[in-house]
Amino acid sequence: MPVVGISRSARGYCMNLVLETMKTYSSEDGLTEEALVTKLRTCRYHHLFLHTSLRHNSSGTCRWGEFGEGGLLWGECAARHFEWFEGNPVIDLLSKVKELYGLDGEVTFRNVTVSSENRPRPLTLGTATQIGAIPTEGIPCLLKVLLPSNCTGLPVIYVRDLLLNPPAYEIASKIQATCKLMSNVTCSIPEFTCVSPAKFLFVEQLVKLLELREANHIEFCRIKNVVDEVLHMHKYSELNQILKLLMDPTWVATGLKIDFETLINECKWASDKIGEMISLDGESDQKISSSSIVPNDFFEDMESSWKGRVKKIHIEEEFAEVERAAEALTLAVTEAFMPIITRIKATTAPLGGPKGEILYAREHEAIWFKGKRFSPAVWAGTPGEEQIKHLKPALDSKGRKVGEEWFTTMRVEDALTRYHEVGAKAKARVLELLRELSSELQSKTNILVFASMLLVIAKALFSHVSEGRRRKWVFPTLVDPPRLKDVKPLNGAYGMKLVGLSPYWFDVAEGSAVNNTVDMQSLFLLTGPNGGGKSSLLRSICAAALLGTCGFMVPAESALIPHFDSIMLHMKSYDSPADGKSSFQVEMSEIRSIVSATSKRSLVLIDEICRGTETAKGTCIAGSIVETLDKIGCLGIVSTHLHGIFSLPLNAKNTVFKAMGTVYVNGQTKPTWKLLDGICRESLAFETAKREGISETIIKRAEEIYNSVYAKEGLSGGNDTELQHVCSYASLNGSDRPHFQSNISREDSERSRSINRMELLQKEVETAVTMICQRMLIELYRKEKTSELTEIRCVPIGAREQPPPSTVGASCVYVMLRPDKKLYVGQTDDLEGRVRTHRSKEGMQKASFLYFTVPGKSLACQLETLLINQLPNQEFHLTNVADGKHRNFGTSSLSLEGVTVC
């Protein structure tokens, strides 16, 4: 989280971000007030500084925000804790940061500002909230439909920030090209475990821990996961192309410019370095000491803080000393206390008497003898007498007697002291090794930050593509805008065309939306009844344009979208009592901001313009705004119920009249939610009021007044253009790494053999599955004479991998290879969800899978049953053999001789 400084310049507002952990800063200039407020509302920061340049405005006063521009920003900042500063907005802010964190004056900060040239303007607050880029109550949330529900944390934040700050055309093109490749990937992909929501501050904490040399083995395991997943992508040709495309988006997100070969080489170095030192998951050569006499909790508490942190080869001497000390302690305790316990048990009366046991005194980190109703009296001629003579009261660290029941001996205390000494020595050695590793990795901080962010972006885009395929969205054709401002588009080449556009909050796969085709070459003046879908259309167009401009998939059948320099949506306005502004004042303020930022490469969407003031003058203001936008030559829509605008002498040569259609059914006018050419003067106001519960008496009286006043003026006529179309009753709601060679213990050898057995099992299963299913498909091909023979191609999914997006909606047959070497056969149209479900069960976290896709669920079911019934004949053990009895398919014995494996 950065320190934020806000200032004002001739170009607009400026936002400076300083990251103390990374010793970097970045600046973004030329922001509008609306865009700056949007950034503040979504930014998580440590401290906020406001520059004194903000106090001066066009009114000539120093009472910032009281008059005109600045009120919205002041309202946002007034509710936050901030400090004023003056001087150079960057240099003095860095001085404040050094003072704040107690840094030496010689510490330098590196500028990682990414140029905003050719980048679209950030979204205004109104636009961001009205399409749900910033979640807002009552507004369909765009973020929720872009990603699956199980995708949370940093990938969501990345997508949100990309929507709020759309990228330049070159980066958007890279993102779209990446998503297209992801959509067709057939190999398994990493799980991207390093970006779970529980690790929000992982990168920042990691940098700080490396700097302070306090990173523990868990952090190092996370780092290795990060670099290994980058190397996993580099290993496969399909994923390697994606990895290369992600370099530029990661540069923009981090400000760090890193060469591809450098990234791969440094990731290999970091992975090998950590792999040489850190004891990784599954390594079992450092078992906690154990004894049948000494309570195991004692050894667990004493040794768990350092065992299993680094590889045993680095602490062989310390490890051996601890083992010898533990054995000596066990022997001392056994010889000192066991004869006494045996004696007590042999002489205890049936109804009570003294008791004795060996216990772990956790508070004192000691193993002592505890005797209840026991006194160390000497009984002549009885066993244990010699041991009782050596007992003495147990003492705490300050030499005070612990209690009347606790006893020890000098030999036990000496063994305890020796055990603690060698344990402390071993722990100190482990910490020393971890600190040395921290020092070595500190020089690679930029690489680790870059790799972490790259995986965040990869996770976000893979998730988006999976959800987009499920929703049947498409990749738009993204048009590069003219480089020169005086170059005009030819034949509408830079217009926008959305075919089969649906509201983004509807699931197209469920078929519940009314689709529209929007072919926009200029400004639209849109009319339509209440509830006719004007607002929904504007939201849908805005979302599609924004998604296309960012390189994402869009909710349409096909789309051509220019890379806009700004996308602005204005909808309903509310009053702002804190600023002393009425709703109309707020609306005019927002439209001023929109018009001043509009160019011919902008998309402007204004819903029900000038609704908050007197009709005649509001109509004229609306007409003048339409003229201005028409003259600029931007694309956009202005919707209105002010039908008097069509009677104004407007000089708007390129504006096209569009309407939301209606149809007359059973004596009632109903909306169809279809966009058509023409003008619609029908408001359906009475029908809407009646539907929302206004009494019949009020409605009838309103109709009487309307007929007596407006009918005489000839203003009650129908549509200027006859709108005929089908009525719809849908509702718009809203490389392999060099292996580190070391002395391999017996446990390591066992684990290696186990892994080899699993690999062998996987190959055997793959061969059997391919032969069984391919034989069946050949028989079906000959019998049904189909045009194409389906080829069985098994794809493996490793223990820390997941299916690619290309499996979304595809019929898959899969085999799960459980850790106990048993198999489970299944079929599904949601392979990712099924894999996640299997791995959520106890002991199945590291299960691997084989899968192949087939055309159609019916065939998948047949092959599933076939495999369930045939694999046991190949001496494979299945956990769901009973499922094969659900169908009569595949129960006969198939001969596998002569089978050709494609």
Please characterize this protein's 3D structure:
The protein has 902 residues and is α/β, with parallel strands linked by helices. Helices cover 41% and strands 15% of the residues. The strands form six sheets. Strands 5-4-1-2-3-6 form a six-stranded mixed sheet. A six-stranded mixed sheet has the order 17-18-19-15-20-21, with helices on both faces. A four-stranded antiparallel sheet has the order 8-9-11-10. Strand 18, helix 20 and strand 19 form a beta-alpha-beta unit. The two termini are 54 Å apart.
Topology:
Blueprint: E1 3-9, E2 12-19, E3 24-31, H1 33-42, E4 47-51, H2 71-78, E5 83-85, H3 91-101, E6 110-111, H4 125-130, H5 142-146, H6 154-164, H7 169-184, E7 189-190, H8 202-212, H9 217-235, H10 237-245, H11 247-254, H12 260-277, H13 296-303, H14 316-347, E8 355-361, E9 366-372, H15 385-389, E10 392-393, E11 406-408, H16 410-442, H17 445-470, E12 477-479, E13 496-501, E14 516-520, E15 523-527, H18 534-550, E16 558-562, E17 566-570, H19 583-596, E18 602-606, H20 615-632, E19 635-639, E20 656-665, E21 668-677, H21 685-691, H22 696-709, H23 746-784, E22 795-797, E23 801-802, E24 811-817, E25 823-828, H24 831-839, E26 848-854, H25 857-870
Helix pairs in contact: 6-17, 7-10, 7-17, 8-16, 9-10, 9-12, 9-17, 11-17, 12-16, 14-16, 23-25
Summed up:
Keywords: ATP-binding, DNA-binding, Nucleotide-binding. This protein has 25 helices and 26 strands.
Task: Please tag this protein with its features.
alpha/beta, six-stranded mixed beta sheet, disordered C terminus, 26 strands, Nucleotidyltransferase, domain 5, 902 residues, 5 domains, 25 helices
